[in-house]
Write a structure and sequence with these properties.
Blueprint (H helix, E strand, L loop, with lengths): L3 H10 L4 H18 L16 E3 L2 E7 L41 E4 L16 E10 L5 E7 L5 E6 L2 E7 L5 E4 L7 E10 L24 E7 L2 E9 L6 E9 L6 E6 L4 E6 L5 E7 L14 E7 L2 E7 L4 E4 L2 E4 L2 E2 L2 E6 L13 H13 L4 E4 L6 H10 L2 E5 L11 H18 L5 E8 L5 H17 L4 E6 L2 E3 L2 E4 L9 E5 L16 E4 L5 E5 L18 H16 L4 E4 L7 E2 L12 E2 L12 H11 L8
Parallel strand pairs: 21-22, 21-31, 22-23, 23-24, 24-25, 25-28, 27-29, 28-30, 30-31
Antiparallel strand pairs: 1-10, 2-3, 2-4, 4-9, 5-8, 5-10, 6-7, 6-9, 11-12, 12-15, 13-14, 13-16, 16-17, 18-19, 19-20, 26-27, 32-33
Helix pairs in contact: 3-4, 5-6, 7-8
Bound molecules: (2S,3S,4S,5R)-3,4,5-trihydroxy-6-oxo-oxane-2-carboxylic acid.
The site of (2S,3S,4S,5R)-3,4,5-trihydroxy-6-oxo-oxane-2-carboxylic acid (GCB) has 9 residues, from loops.
Amino acid sequence: MKHLSLRVLARSIALIPIRTALAVLVVVLISSAIASAAPAPIVITGADRRPATSLNGDWASIVDPYFSGLFSFHHEEKKDGWFRNYKAKPGDSSPTEYDFATAPKLKVPSDWNTQRDSLLYYEGPVWYEHDFNYQPRQHTRIYLHIGAANYRSWFWVNGEKVCEHEGGYTSFNCDVTAVVHAGANFVVAAVDNTRHEDGVPTLETDWWNYGGLTRTVSLLEVPEAFVDQYDIHLSRTGNDVIEGWVHVEGAQSGAKVEVEIPELSAKTAAQVDKDGRAAIHMAAPSLERWSPESPKLYKVQVRAGQDAIEDLIGFRTVETRGTEILLNGKPIFLRGIAIHAEAPYRTGRANTDKDAETLLGWAKELGCNFVRLAHYPHDESMLRAADRMGLLVWSENPVYWALQFDNPKVLAKAEQQLDEEIGTSRNHAAIILWSMANETPNTAPRTRFITTLAERARSLDSTRLITAALLVRAEGTTKIVDDALGKALDVVGVNEYIGWYEQKPETADITAWRIDYQKPLIVSEFGGDAKAGLHGDASDRWTEEYQADIFRHQLPMLNKIPQLRGMSPWVLMDFRSPNRPLVGIQDEFNRKGLISDQGQKKQAFFILQKAYNENTIGKPE
Ligand code: GCB
């Protein structure tokens, strides 16, 4: 499971001359050996379904803009970290400048920006420290589970480095078995939300760069051989067959795995191969399929040796047929809305069950059966809520705008985040689409980069559809969808802003569409800004009336596109963005929400709600 990136690298260097290939491999091996003093974190499926020791709560914090805690005065990385002096042994003589005992606290999980006024705009490193008591049991492994840390993070337990991670929106797990001991322990984390040219995402985005340990942190204790990943889904053959695989980390070849769904009296056993993986196949004749109308979830038990986990999984199929999207074999229209992981009412990162229920509750009220969770993987609580509430999900990799598409290191980062996203979320019935990218420039290196990602996503998960939100070009009053990336997709997503960034809302009335792909189309964004409570004429920008007018003109235009199979207008709720400085109107919020960040519904909400409830959308004329 762990060495996928090296395998992919080996596959790609097979295409270049042997001497260059060897040189590349040597450089990669040396640099990865230098960079990874601690083992790389691993992905654990269903981590939130395991008993855990929560490390959430108050953590001591030290803001370190020059990162002097990690780098010496000549900017060399300090091997063991300065905090060996923290809780120093008697006799240690060096001064303790980073004293967590006197440092102010930050809450975990949460971004730091909305917790302390001085950190609202902060982009840089912050140190975190937390004490915990623990009693490890024998013959177990212990993992430090981090729901997300934006953007780079480093972890030490009892002064020993345990892992490093890059990527702000995926969960990861660091093996701390060797360093956690009985009694008092402490964990130190450095989290740095500096934006990087070669990051994923990169320097420019349109959302707040919330930093910190933004999602839950816990300790997971598992047997020495344990189920780290599994994929259990309904086969597309239509014969009520549940199939997939279970991977057991640390298992001997031939070790037994069992999967059971008690409610269906379905049970199967299999043996793991030399890679620790067992194929699963079992009949489930009386299975009730998961759908937005009836989001049935089953308790699924997975057992392997000493390990057992019980997940809640729904079973459905999704596929395309020509320009149709079929859910459980039947054509479906995706009545959607796009959502950022912005917390309703309090702002900051959404990361609780309550946040998820509020956001998705609004989506249901709007009449949706579909949500686009933009522009990065959202918290597990959002996916669990979508499974429960019956909302289909578009899940997105943060390949946003103009990454360094010709940089192999950037591709490796995007691949790692994709692996983590799919590895963590692959058993959610709600997710039907993996989105590879948003509004990327139409260049050859971009197309190669994202096609590679799409192939990887398909090889990791052949049961879902691949999409991306593309840009559209115009010839006169015709909008043309011919971006070369469309070839690599199962479902074409397009963003357009007629009536906001271009022309007037009524331009939609005379706009025609030419789609060069005979594939299902989702209009993944359209909309405009309105400040809740600001009223005026339909021609006055920033008013609720103007925004409503955009929706009034968009819906009939979209209905004329024969292959339109869904839409996710931009966006459910206003969200913070430093790109939106207009004083008195935006005040650093993107105001394209149908609902304000304080929960006020704008007029456009009711226009879309009517169209969704009366089913007047998705019926081409
Ligand atoms: C877009 C982006 C989205 C922005 C939105 C806007 O095209 O995909 O991230 O927030 O437009 O409001 O401009």
